[in-house]
């Protein structure tokens, strides 16, 4: 399937989460024809994930906060779709954005759950709203059935109204743990503990930045009140040391951390549970930006005040430009959509028109920069990874093999470890194990530039770019 119709300026927005929705609506409202591509069957992304219609959820809003914001986005998108200003393509898994010789772009995607049939969309400009993905660090037992990511537990609850078990521990670090723990508890799961590696003292040094966002502080306080109401025990400055079980998870051992981020001897306690929801923050999805040659700042896509990348015709917004939550994604998406619409129509953007969104962006970026410095994984987490712990699940590479690659074979970076051990060569291409491999190797986690954002059938690859 191809899309090569002439006419109005055309913008391809990749990702239908908060940033992509805000961008698509802003651009469509200003005379640009928008094609919104997303891998999910419904708009909303992870943050606004909805239960399947067949489940007939009576109160889906109970699974969300900011529900009215979602309703405005949903209704705005529907109105533009009905008017023909936006075409929303669901179940489109984008594997490459190709910059053509004429300066336009071809977006290559795979259709449906099987991801075998190709589709192409042509556009004058591209806006990347590809979101982020979870960072999970390895520990003994983390491959047991019943150990899932915190975001996975949340997605299961929002999308299927199901929970992974009856008694859960939520662990790791980061603000995502709060809604996951409260969501599970509200759904009837006994949450035995919320295990957070950050401690109260870390917040004291960031009081000014945090106080600048009283709404976010109040949101955190509401989550705290819900935890108390459900009698969820908070274990601050603690970490999961090991998950136990034969065929599936039966219990976890958690222990206290000292000031240097090491496990304090003699503090371990065993907590029976059948579910462990664990996460250590998030990383931006930058695969498509990297294949286009966009500059990165650390792990995030670099953008200017208009959310433009350094590649002409390419904008980026949301978690791809730095992890910061839905409100920041909405502000960045709105700015990016307005900027792209103006420039595609040959006009000079007027930043004064999005001044309120820009102020929100500035405040929230400062707020989440402060949170990032608080919610950091324990400095010495790698010391708990035993040599027989599987770190790369796809290729079954253990912690011992990674350490041997460094100590005995001289590997000094993650790429060399990958070449020597195959860690990161599997289906996920290192997205799951990358942080763990880098941490065990004692090197920096650097973006891996891949030619494609996801595996592609050879037949699709061979036929890419051909006319129907």
Automatic annotation (TrEMBL):
Domain named BFD-like [2Fe-2S]-binding: residues: 390-438
Protein's UniProt name: NAD(P)/FAD-dependent oxidoreductase
CDD domains linked: GlpA-like_Fer2_BFD-like (cd19946)
Keyword list, A-Z: Oxidoreductase
Taxonomic superkingdom: Bacteria
Annotated transmembrane regions: none
UniProt keyword Oxidoreductase present: yes
Domain (FAD/NAD(P)-binding): residue spans on this chain: 10-325
């Amino acid at each position: 399937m191809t899309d090569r119709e002439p006419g109005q300026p055309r913008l391809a927005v990749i990702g239908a989460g908060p940033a992509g929705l805000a961008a698509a609506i802003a651009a469509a409202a200003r005379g640009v024809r928008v094609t919104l591509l997303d891998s999910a069957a419904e708009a909303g992304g992870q943050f606004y994930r909805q239960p399947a219609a067949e489940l007939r959820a009576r109160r889906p809003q109970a699974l969300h906060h900011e529900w009215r914001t979602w309703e405005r986005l949903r209704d705005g998108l529907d109105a533009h779709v009905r008017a023909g200003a936006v075409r929303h393509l669901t179940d489109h898994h984008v594997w490459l954005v190709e910059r053509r010789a004429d300066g336009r772009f071809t977006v290559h995607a795979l259709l449906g759950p099987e991801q075998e049939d190709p589709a192409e969309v042509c556009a004058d400009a591209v806006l990347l709203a590809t979101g982020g993905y979870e960072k999970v660090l390895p520990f003994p037992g983390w491959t047991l059935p019943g150990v899932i990511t915190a975001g996975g537990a949340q997605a299961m609850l929002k999308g299927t109204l199901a929970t992974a078990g009856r008694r859960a521990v939520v662990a790791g670090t980061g603000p995502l743990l709060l809604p996951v723990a409260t969501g599970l508890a509200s759904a009837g799961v006994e949450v035995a503990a919320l295990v957070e590696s950050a401690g109260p003292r870390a917040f004291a040094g960031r009081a000014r930045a945090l106080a600048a966002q009283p709404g976010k502080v109040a949101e955190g306080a509401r989550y705290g009140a819900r935890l108390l109401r459900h009698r969820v025990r908070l274990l601050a400055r603690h970490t999961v040391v090991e998950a136990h079980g034969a065929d599936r998870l039966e219990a976890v051992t958690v222990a206290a951390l000292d000031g240097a981020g090491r496990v304090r001897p003699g503090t371990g306690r065993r907590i029976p549970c059948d579910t462990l929801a664990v996460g250590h923050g998030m990383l931006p999805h930058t695969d498509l930006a990297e294949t286009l040659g966009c500059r990165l700042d650390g792990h995030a896509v670099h953008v200017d005040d208009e959310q433009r990348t350094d590649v002409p015709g390419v904008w980026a917004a949301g978690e791809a430009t730095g992890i910061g939550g839905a409100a920041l994604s909405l502000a960045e998406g709105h700015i990016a959509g307005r900027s792209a619409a103006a420039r595609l129509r040959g006009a000079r953007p007027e930043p004064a028109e999005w001044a309120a969104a820009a102020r929100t962006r500035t405040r929230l970026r400062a707020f989440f920069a402060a949170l990032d410095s608080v919610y950091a994984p324990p400095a010495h987490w790698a010391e708990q990874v035993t040599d027989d712990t599987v770190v790369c699940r796809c290729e079954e590479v253990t912690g011992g093999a990674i350490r041997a690659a460094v100590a005995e074979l001289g590997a000094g970076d993650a790429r060399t470890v990958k070449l020597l051990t195959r860690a990161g060569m599997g289906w996920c291409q290192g997205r799951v194990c990358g942080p763990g491999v880098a941490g065990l190797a004692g090197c920096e986690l650097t973006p891996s530039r891949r030619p494609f954002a996801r595996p592609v059938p050879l037949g699709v690859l061979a036929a890419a770019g051909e006319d129907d």
